[in-house]
Write a structure and sequence with these properties.
The complex is a heterodimer of chains A (318) and B (178). With 318 residues, chain A is α/β, with parallel strands linked by helices. Chain A has three domains: 9-98, Translation factors (Elongation Factor Tu (Ef-tu), domain 3, Beta Barrel); 113-219, Nucleotide-binding domain of ferredoxin-NADP reductase (FNR) module (Rossmann fold, 3-Layer(aba) Sandwich), CATH 3.40.50; 235-316, Beta-grasp domain (Ubiquitin-like (UB roll)), CATH 3.10.20.30. Chain A contains seven helices and 18 strands. In chain A, the strands form four sheets. Chain A has a six-stranded antiparallel beta sheet with strand order 4-3-6-1-2-5, with helices on one face. A five-stranded parallel beta sheet of chain A has the order 9-8-7-10-11, with helices on both faces. Chain A has a five-stranded mixed beta sheet with strand order 13-12-18-14-16, covered by helices on one side. The longest helix of chain A is centred in the middle third of the chain and has 13 residues, at 124-136. Chain B is an alpha+beta fold and 178 residues long. Chain B has a single domain, classed as Beta Barrel (M1 Pyruvate Kinase, Domain 3), CATH 2.40.33. Chain B contains three helices and eleven strands, in the order H-E-E-E-E-E-H-E-E-E-H-E-E-E. A seven-stranded mixed beta barrel of chain B has the order 1-6-5-9-8-7-11. In chain B, strands 4-3-10 form a three-stranded antiparallel beta sheet, with no helix packed on it. Classes of the chains: A alpha/beta (318), B alpha+beta (178). Chain A binds chain B through residues 2-6, 8-10, 30-32, 34-38, 66, 100, 266, 268-271, 273-274, and chain B through 33-39, 41, 64-72, 135-139, 142-143, 149, 153.
């Protein structure tokens, strides 16, 4: 059988800790305890779970801990199934593929104070940031955590509580504090961040509407849709020999759409120079972005790693 | 370039004698990683196994845990990269690229890698045969977060087959086989 491309980082579940009510903390390591790709404070990774379920979680540990990814997952019975799968099916020693870390906070600029506002499990993106700030000692910070009852991830919060960096607001026994009062006005050397339920984020956005963008960081449970290039449009690939139609979404590469559809396409550089993924086209109007085909060759072929389509349908000789 | 040199040699009456570029180089850095995406780790020495690859590296034949392992290549047992390219990236593009970031195994100094395709040469006590120039890939931009695809076109290193194995250490000499 032909080997499949490796598209994720192979990790092993080293241990699963109790993170409080309905929360489990997963530590992921390389099978040989090799270093993992580095991440910024507040970064997140995708976990690739059985059944082609892909879920994004914030990394909770100090970025200096370069051989472990720690994620805290709250079991959401009414969610889309990823957290249930992790809670109910994943065991110590299991293998999980993860993506390269993405995103995170820019903590190394000229900011002397950070204020983070989080709701419940929304504390996770700020745990790695807090660990980073505690270790480097370059800036003061405070984390306001709103919870209903017992806070999550008590073990990860303990060192922060001990140093007085965390204020826990139990909204069962008192009203949720006004967010504007927590973050104050707009001093130029303070940065603020928020992660929590939609209502909390809306209040935070209102409270920071006059702040400079670079001093405000909002982390959402559901990622915003990437703004599309207005020139990028969806189109359909018609595979003449396979008698298949493959939809290419705006911004997606032709190669990615073909691979998702189970079409075996040889590809290598993915940048339009190596020539591996050349495919002949029959009808339509390709947009060529490669640097390998001559004008004459473009009349017959395209490179699926970078090419697009100016027409709604493009017929390929596949 | 080599073809030109050989033609010039023949034109000057050197008969069938092949002119090789004169060079002696050094091993400056050594790196391996066991799996795709993982950081390359600096090593003081690496062990090359003839016909297979580097002990512990992702592209060792039989291990197949590299990003391109689904595309088997017998001539990709060890990869090399010129340290001069790292200097040029800084000089020409203001890009700082570390020797652990280009993801080739051996960083060389003073070796005209692009001239060696099809040739044999000594890497310390090991003998290599250069099979093809490496090509850059978008994957390396994903890993490093640096826009290095374009600047690395035509200077992305060299793929080699291991003809004679052995241990390669930092500071080892590199030289032509002849």
């Amino acid at each position: 059988m032909k080997a499949a491309p490796i598209t994720t980082i192979k990790t092993i579940v080293e241990k699963i800790d109790d993170g409080g009510p309905d929360v489990k903390v997963f530590s992921l390591v390389d099978p040989d305890r090799w270093e993992l790709p580095p991440f910024r404070p507040g970064a997140h990774i995708d976990l690739h779970l059985p059944g082609k379920i892909v879920r994004t979680y914030s990394l909770c540990n100090d970025p200096a801990e370069n051989s472990r990814y720690v994620v805290a997952v709250k079991r959401e019975p009414s969610g889309r199934g990823g957290s249930i799968r992790l809670h109910d099916d994943v065991r110590q020693g299991d293998t999980i593929g993860v993506s390269l870390p993405r995103g995170g906070l820019q903590l190394d600029n000229k900011v002397s104070r950070f204020t983070f506002v989080a709701g419940g499990i929304g504390v996770t993106p700020f745990l790695s940031a807090a660990a980073y700030l505690m270790r480097t000692g370059g800036a003061d910070f405070r984390l306001h955590l709103m919870v209903r009852g017992e806070p999550p991830v008590a073990g990860l919060l303990a060192p922060l509580l001990q140093k007085g960096h965390v204020v826990i607001h139990n909204t069962v026994s008192a009203a949720r504090p006004d967010i504007a009062s927590l973050i104050g006005r707009t001093p130029s050397d303070e940065m603020v961040g928020c992660c929590g339920p939609q209502g909390m984020i809306e209040d935070f956005e209102q409270a920071t509407r006059d702040w400079p963008d670079e001093l405000v960081h909002i982390e959402r449970f559901v990622p915003l849709t990437r703004p599309l290039d207005p020139n990028e449009k969806p189109y359909t690939l018609v595979l003449s020999r396979s008698k298949l139609e493959v939809a290419v979404t705006a911004g997606q590469t032709m190669l990615s759409a073909l691979i998702d559809a189970g079409i075996d396409i040889p590809a290598s550089c993915c940048g339009g120079i190596c020539g591996s993924c050349k495919v002949d086209w029959l009808q339509g109007e390709p947009v060529h972005r490669d640097r390998v085909l001559s004008p004459a060759e473009r009349g017959k072929s395209l490179m699926v790693c970078v090419a697009g389509s100016a027409t709604d349908r493009l017929i390929l000789d596949l | 370039m080599l073809d030109v040199l050989e033609t010039q040699g023949n034109a000057a009456g050197t008969g069938d004698r092949t002119i090789s570029p004169a060079w002696t180089g050094l091993v400056r850095h050594l790196h391996i990683t066991p799996r795709a995406f993982l950081p390359m780790r600096a090593m003081p020495e690496i062990k090359l196994i003839a016909g297979r690859g580097i002990e512990g590296d992702r592209y060792m034949i039989g291990r197949e845990e590299g990003f391109y392992s689904h595309k088997p290549e017998e001539g990709r047992q060890v990869t090399l990269f010129e340290i001069e390219t790292l200097v040029a990236l800084k000089r020409d593009h203001n890009i700082e690229l570390g020797s652990e970031e280009h993801r080739r195994n051996v960083t060389t100094e003073g070796v005209p890698l692009t001239h060696l395709v099809g040739r044999k040469f000594w890497l310390g006590e090991t003998l290599l045969e250069a099979t093809r120039l490496s090509i850059p890939c978008r994957h390396i931009e994903d890993i490093t977060g640096k826009a290095i695809f374009d600047p690395l076109i035509n200077r992305s290193g060299l793929n080699c087959r291991i003809l004679q194995g052995g241990v390669v250490r930092i500071g080892d000499t590199m030289r032509n086989f002849q």
